[in-house]
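Mods, move this if it's the wrong board.
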Amino acid sequence: MTRFLHTSDWQLGQVRHYLSPRNDGDDPQARFTQARIDAIRTIGGLARQRECEFVVVAGDVFETQNVSTTIVARSLKAIESIGLPVYLLPGNHDSLEPGNIWERIKLPSNATLLDGTDPIRVADGVEIVGVPLL
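Not the wrong board. Structure tokens:
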């Protein structure tokens, strides 16, 4: 039996304008952003604990095509920390339209972008078929 962890809608880089910095120096938006990145590490820990063979992120890894390079870098480092193969499917927020976010980033070695519809063999007798939004 093949075990994997399925997740979606990370929407990394999402900005909540009502989370503006406070007079006391607290920055709720920064905490919100960090919590999302920390969640990736938690997902990795859970996948390893449950002896999963891989992780699938089925759409909307990033919130927009224009996520800051700092957040992208932090996100990719967290994906790398999962320590298992990670399959990333573009969704409506980070689709494969011209000028997309995926064209400007280098994925860590454990991550694969599902940018086509050809089956990808991920385990004995198991294939993933991505259907990315173009």
